[in-house]
Each structure stands twice: as structure tokens, then as C-alpha cells.
Amino acid sequence: MTWICILEICREQGRKIMPYKSKDTRCIICGKPFSTHHNAVSCSPKCRYALTRHFDGRIIPKEETEYNQLMRNKHPNTGPFETNCRAKYWSLIAPNKQVYNFTNLQFFVREHPALFGNDAETGYLGRRYATRAGCQLKRLRPDKAHAINSWKGWKWHFLLLGGK
Fold first, then answer.
1. Residue 56 region, left (φ>0) first, then alpha (ψ -120 to 50), else beta?
2. How far apart (Å, rounded) are the C-alpha atoms in residues 115 and 72?
3. Virtual CA dihedral for 146, 109, 159, 141, nearest 10 degrees?
4. Of 28, 57, 60, residue with least CA distance to 43
5. Does residue 54 have a pLDDT over 60?
6. How many domains does the chain have?
7. C-alpha–C-alpha distance, residues 144 and 159, integer Å
8. Would you tell me which of 120, 136, 141, 147 could form a disulfide with 113, CB atoms 3.0–4.6 Å apart?
9. Residue 151 and residue 102 share a domain
């Protein structure tokens, strides 16, 4: 069926055919005027790429989100440091029977790669970058749902009461 046939059938049935109306609007990234048939907010693929996130009704350009990520990684409460707000207290016994007390497991593994060998290498695991040693050692915590007794000779020493 061609477009002309569809037009004739619609006219016979008494239906109106509404053509697409183009809407003139301005790009919210570069400010150029452009025409659209739908509710587009940007004029080109380059400007669409610049839109990454919608936050509180305000569209944040990609450069700003990269800067925020950079600053988040440098901040002592949110970056990869012992002072991270999500860091927990740890007390582990190494295979050589030495006791290690520290905060922030991933930071400890990154700072002591000689203790873990190839397992201390950082790689993409799931949704984030982490170390294999860190992922396995966190299963030693007794407050975890699927806690294990030991991993490659590493054991849990004790749980600090009142800590994180």
C-alpha cells in the first residue's frame, strides 16, 4: 500500500490527515536555533553527546561531570584513602601469623602488594575497579552473609565492637 492509497482511504472515511508540524526551538548546549518534529533539546549528535545526566532539573555537561568525578577521587572522605566515609575497621592475621589492624581494605591491599602477589592487581570486577585480594578478604568479615573462615592463609582476627 502506498502513501497515496492511504491518503485516499482516509479521505473516504472522512478522517483528517494532520501533517507533522515542525517546532522551532533552541539547542540548550550551543544555543543554535533548529527545527524538530519531536521534543528534542539539542541540535546535533555532538550536542546530544554533551548531555550526560539530568540532575535537579538542570542538565549537566560532560565536562562538569568529569571534573566532579576527579574532585570526588581527590577528597579524603570520598577518595581511595583510609579516611573514606565507607571504610571499615579490619583486623586480619596473615599467613605468617602477623596481625594487621587497618581501615579501608582496598587501600591496604593497594599499599601492600607484596603480601598478595598477583591478587593485588587492580582490574574491572563487576561494576567497579577492585583487587581480587580485596574482594576475597572482605568475605572474612563475620558480619557478612556468606563469610568464609580463611583465604590463602589469611584469617579474621577479631571484630572491633562499636566500630564500623
1. left
2. 29
3. 0
4. 28
5. no
6. 2
7. 12
8. 120
9. yes
